[in-house]
Amino acid sequence: MYTALYRKWRPMTFDDVVSQPHITATLSRQVAEGKTAHAYLFTGSRGTGKTTCARILAKAVNCLDPHDGKPCLECDICRAADAGTLSDIIEIDAASNTGVDDIRELRDSAIYAPELCRYKVYIIDEVHMLSNAAFNALLKIMEEPPEHIKFILATTEVHKVPATIISRCQRFDFRRIREEDIVDRLMYISKCEKIDLTPQAAALIARLADGAMRDALSLLDQCIAYSEHIDPEVVSNAAGVAGRDYLFDILEAASKGDVSAALGIVDDLYSKSKDMSRLCDELLIQLRNLMLIKTVPENRKLLSCLDGEAQRLEKIASGETLDGVLSKLGVVSDCAEALPRAVSKRTEFEMAIVKLCSQKPAETTSKGDTSALERRIASLERELDLLRSGAAAFEKPAGRAEPQKEPSPEKAETSPKNQPEVKEAPLEKFNRWEDVLDRLTELNPGCAGALQGSEAYVRGDALMILVKNEFFLWLFKRPENASSLKKAAYDVTGISYSLHAKCVKNEDAPPKNDAVSELIERARQAEIPVDEN
After folding, report:
1. DSSP strand pairing (149-155 vs 196-197)
2. Any residues with CB less than 8 A from the CB of 19 and at least 6 apart, and which?
3. Could you tell me if 202 and 186 are in contact, meaning their C-beta atoms sit under 8 angstroms apart?
4. In angstroms, how far is CA 515 from the centroid of its own chain?
5. Please, what are the domains in the chain?
6. Of 46, 51, 271, 431, which residue is 20 to 30 A from 476 by alpha carbon distance?
7. In sequence order, which residues have a C-beta less than 8 Å from that of residue 502 and are 6 or more positions away?
8. CB 241 within 8 A of CB 279
């Protein structure tokens, strides 16, 4: 029976683990000195060696003849562990055993001494999937474990593991495997397996694997089934990704604003069954390369491209500005995030391509030409005038007289009757209330739902909300809800309002202008945000 490469070439000892020397050196030294902990937590992204190192550590602590803290692979314990027949090394998939009963069963069996080994080792994979009750049950035995018990927890989402569990473990963070290490490993395996793999193809596989050795070996397996001679074109076809030339053609068309050419390339790729998600990821990588060329052109090591592609990238970057590249990065990044949920991935990606081609190049200003800068200043001044005129439309609220200047001695005799009266600011219906509710729906959907059918009136910087649902008054007393509503109003109008609320139960008789004015004044005098009386 054929065995998948990632299973056949799984590391058997610490020396075989790739790109994790900070972890393997520490673990082997602990085993050699007999100072192993009772609980370990291995965390990191997929395919970085967490479960593999857990199995090696379980063998090493029980090996009959360890060499410098590494398992010998020849004793009965090591052979039984590699064959999966050793009863004292128990692997538990937390994704399938999430309940408290599963952990209670583990706790009950842990009190018994190991049958053949020195230690009974429990390897709990994807431990973050356990329920809260299961974590509490696990915590009890991890606090005071028997001397013959060791726990090795592995997870890709350490933020979901309770702090009480983490604090009782020695934590090791696994890094993404470097591309050059993946290439070296792929070339070594291909030599042993007599696979015709070119270095360029190995580099492309390593890039697509995104730091995961298991993904790289799975993709190599896929390429073996596709062709006997594996080059970059075979990798692209087997993985369903765009060839390198297609990517650069898309970027050049986007730089020139040629929508027809860019969509034609996408149509050709789609007809060849190219994966739109993979194509989007590859395009994102090349846009990152353009960003790095525009910011740190002297550091070529940061670029993620094959030999000979840097010159073409530089040619494309010469026709772009940094702001334009960053804007394109944002468009493609948003597309990559939306693709998994899209009804039509092709349409979603084509929308992103149209946006890329429709973007206008940013204005540049030379030392001797200040026209672009002057146009921007003039535009900002016009926007500032509009904001000022909009703010002036809201008069000062009544009851808040502006400070009077000290009268001069010559005008001290002037009768108060001759002084101009301060007019009370009129009460107006708030015409932008629907816009505020739309913004509040984005910030706080629960609070916005309670404002259905509500009205708002404004006088100066006071905003009076009339609701038909008493539940909103309860919500409005919570600081986070009042704060989100105030922010929504500020985002829409640019004015920081003082907020007041009143429940109007009679739907057939809307409040009169003077009644609303009285409510605002009562709320102000009481200095509370909600008036329920």
Report:
1. unpaired
2. 48, 175, 176, 177, 178, 181
3. yes
4. 49
5. 5-173 (3.40.50.300), 179-239 (1.10.8.60), 244-358 (1.20.272.10), 428-526 (3.30.300.180)
6. 431
7. 464, 465, 466, 467, 519, 523, 531, 532
8. yes
pLDDT at 500: 78
Give residues with Cβ within 8 angstroms of 316, minimum separation 6: 248, 251, 252, 255, 290
> 156 near 186, Cβ under 8 Å?
no
Is 372:364 a contact under the CB 8 Å cutoff?
A: yes
Tens digits of residue pLDDT in 300-319: 778 877 666 778 888 888 88
| pLDDT at residue 512, rounded to an integer | 47
Residues paired with residue 456 on neighbouring β-strands, in sequence order? 465
Is residue 209 helix, strand or coil? helix
pLDDT exceeding 90 applies to what percent of the chain?
Answer: 29
Which residues lie closer than 8 Å to 130 by C-beta, 6 or more apart? 94, 98, 103, 124, 138
CB atoms within 10 A of CB 241: 22
Helix, strand, coil percentages, rounded to 5, for the chain: 55, 10, 35
Among all chains, which residue has been given the structure tokens 């050049």? 252
Average pLDDT of the segment spanning 184-192: 92
Per-residue pLDDT band at 518 (split at 50, 70, 90): low
Altogether, the residues listed in the chain come to a count of 533
In the 8-state DSSP scheme, what is residue 70? B
Please determine, for residue 444, whether its predicted confidence score (pLDDT) is greater than 70.
Answer: yes
Task: Check residue 243 and give its pLDDT.
Answer: 56
Average pLDDT over residues 509-532: 49
How confident is the model over 259-313, as pLDDT tens digits?
999 999 999 888 888 889 888 988 998 899 899 888 888 877 788 776 667 788 8
**3-state secondary structure string, 284-332?**
HHHHHHHHHHHHCCCCHHHCCCCCCCHHHHHHHHHCCCHHHHHHHHHHH
From the CB of residue 73, how many other CB atoms can be counted at a distance below 10 Å? 16
- The torsion angle over the Cα atoms of residues 237, 242, 243 and 249, rounded to 10 degrees, is 160
- How far apart are alpha carbons 14 and 280 in whole angstroms? 37
Residue 245 one-letter amino acid? D
Q: Which helix (H) or strand (E) holds 503?
A: strand 498-503
The whole-model pTM stands at: 0.57
Residues 240 and 275: beta-carbon distance below 8 Å: yes
Closest to 114 (Cα-Cα) out of 86, 94, 92, 93: 86
